[in-house]
Amino acid sequence: MLAYLIRRLWQMVPTLLGVVLLVFALFKGFGADPAVLLAGQNATQAQIAAIRQELGLDQPWWFQLGIFLKQIITFDWGKSWATGETVAHLFATRLPATLTVMTPMFVLDALLAIPLALAVARVRGSLTDRVLMVVTTVALSISFLVYVIVGQYLFGYQLGWFPVQGWSDSVWTNLTTYVPLPVLLVVLVGLSPQTRLYRSFFLDELGQDYVRTARAKGLSEGAVFYRHVLRNAMIPILTNIGMALPGIFIGSFLIEVFFSIPGLGREVLLAVNRSDYPVIQATTVYLAVLTMLINLGTDLLYKVVDPRVVLK
After folding, report:
1. Rounded distance, CA 302 to CA 1, Å?
2. Burial class (CB in 10 A: 0-12, 13-18, 19+), 284
3. What is the Cα gyration radius of the chain?
4. Cβ atoms within 10 A of the Cβ of 298, count?
5. Cβ 148 vs Cβ 258: under 8 Å
6. Residue 218: left if φ>0, alpha if ψ -120 to 50, beta else—which one?
7. Which of 63, 214, 255, 298 is deepest in the core (most CB within 10 A)?
8. Cα 203 from Cα 33, distance rounded (Å)
9. By the 8 A CB rule, do 139 and 192 touch?
10. Is 211 exposed, middle or buried (0-12, 13-18, 19+ CB in 10 A)?
11. What does the domain layout of the chain look like in residue ranges?
12. pLDDT in tens, 157-190
């Protein structure tokens, strides 16, 4: 296990280097001139040249690449061009709000979808199964924006159960007051596709020979499902959760905008609108690292869920 972990971490280095080179090339080749953006519309050529010199943009590309690599290694991305705030401080102050919203989304999505899909698979072909499949199909065809608008109108304005917008410095207040509505809407949106997908995983396992053997040995349906089917279906389920986790992180960006949550996602979207390169570059690289670590964690969980899995 340790050798596999070290090997995978080592393999991340060239992958991350490729991401870094791609990000550098995209911003260098296709992005606007940062000096012109920072100087503003009324700046003189001398002012633009001074900013370009200050940022090192008058240096050759390989020198600028060295600066970029140094920023990644030292975690020092400099200051935001739009606000003057250091990127490290921006991440440190905005990330907790993002995690406060994203963590309940991720946990509830997994905890609700798996047992629901397992329960539906057990009654395959029944009226309950058919009704649930129709409901999930209809839910899938509705845009997420409709969920947000209807949810805010119904639960916020009409029923008054949750505030539509707001945030505080207290984690408990946020979790009990401001987070429930966005989490509820995201879980409602994500539950339908996850339930349908996990149901198909369970149904695939139910058609395997070992299930017929287990039933022939006299095992109860509960034992067959929870001891055999669930265990074997967890491999593709973990794969799907691992692939979806970065998407949930990015999806929380939109939630932060809709509900005015002062998280990292809203800051990133503002950075994109402002062409705030340091913030965008740091977010891109960190998301790439996060995705690779999630993939590694998913592979390790395969071994935990099913000891027969051999990590090579």
Report:
1. 12
2. middle
3. 24
4. 17
5. yes
6. left
7. 255
8. 55
9. yes
10. middle
11. 87-272
12. 888 888 888 888 888 888 888 889 988 888 888 8
Residue 107 contacts residue 99 (beta carbons within 8 Å): no
> What is the C-alpha separation between 248 and 243, in angstroms, rounded?
9
* Per-residue confidence band for 77, with pLDDT thresholds at 50, 70 and 90: confident
Only one residue has tokens 């998407």, namely 247
What is the rounded CA–CA span in Å between residue 169 and residue 153? 26
Cα dist. 275→33, 37, 218, 279 in Å? 10, 8, 65, 9
Phi, psi (degrees; rounded to nearest 5) at 41: -75, -30
Which residues, in sequence order, are bridge partners of residue 79? 86
pLDDT tens across 194-237, in order?
888 999 998 888 888 888 888 888 888 888 888 888 888 888 88
**pTM exceeds cut of 0.85:** no
Least confident window among 24-38, 111-125, 293-307: 24-38
Show the tokens assigned to 310.
């051999």
Rounded CA separation 182/162 (Å):
10
- CATH architecture, domain defined by 87-272: Orthogonal Bundle (1.10)
CB neighbours of 177 closer than 8 A, spacing ≥ 6? 162, 163, 166, 168
Rounded Cα distance between 306 and 81, Å, is: 49
